[in-house]
Write a structure and sequence with these properties.
mainly alpha; about 0% strand
Length: about 200
């Protein structure tokens, strides 16, 4: 494999990571924008801060993806089976109900889902600071099930929602020296905490 081909492959992976990350960010922002009627005042400044901080970290990881070779995908995307659709639907219902616990913090639904995703991923990131490899293995064990059952798909999408952000960050940091790995992992944890704080400010 020529060096030029390797460089183009890395560039493609970096761009793909950047686009996928921004799609996830867009989905979260759309959930937030559904509750604009609950904002106490104009929150454009908070939106800019939330997007800017997230975009800076996404851009950094995208550049690192280009610089550092990544492994092949664990599994190709396949057509959804009936069991997977049912498992996904159950997860959506479960997460929607579970997220209502954050209404006590004066967050309206569905912005509560954003808070739930950020809080759960923050906990997994904190866990990954010590058990880095184990967090990756645990995620892959849940997300790439070996049998086509509703239960397996339920846990697959629970893992994706509750620890997917952490997994894709950790899989990039995994190829870095230990000190840089931990430093950027801590920055990621602080970023999630920062986004949580900004989210609360929207509805004060």
């Amino acid at each position: 494999m020529s060096n030029s081909y390797k460089r183009s492959l890395r560039l493609k992976k970096g761009i793909t990571f950047f686009l996928k990350s921004n799609i996830i960010l867009l989905i979260l922002m759309l959930l937030l924008l559904t509750n604009t009627f609950s904002w106490k005042e104009d929150r454009i400044g908070l939106i800019v801060m939330m997007l800017a901080s997230a975009e800076l970290y996404i851009l950094l990881l995208s550049i690192l993806t280009i610089i550092i070779p990544r492994g092949k995908n664990k599994k190709k995307i396949e057509r959804f089976s009936k069991s997977e659709w049912i498992g996904l639907l159950l997860v959506i219902i479960f997460i929607s109900i579970f997220s209502l616990g954050f209404t006590g913090a004066e967050l309206p639904f569905p912005s509560t889902i954003i808070m739930l995703i950020l809080v759960m991923n923050s906990m997994i990131v904190f866990f990954s600071l010590v058990f880095h490899k184990f967090s990756i293995v645990l995620y892959e064990a849940n997300v790439y099930p070996e049998n086509d059952s509703i239960t397996n798909y339920f846990f697959k999408y629970i893992a994706i929602v509750f620890s997917g952000l952490n997994y894709y960050v950790q899989s990039i940091l995994d190829r870095m020296p230990l000190l840089i790995n931990k430093l950027l992992a801590i920055v990621f944890l602080l970023l999630l905490i920062w986004e949580n704080m900004l989210l609360l400010f929207y509805f004060e």
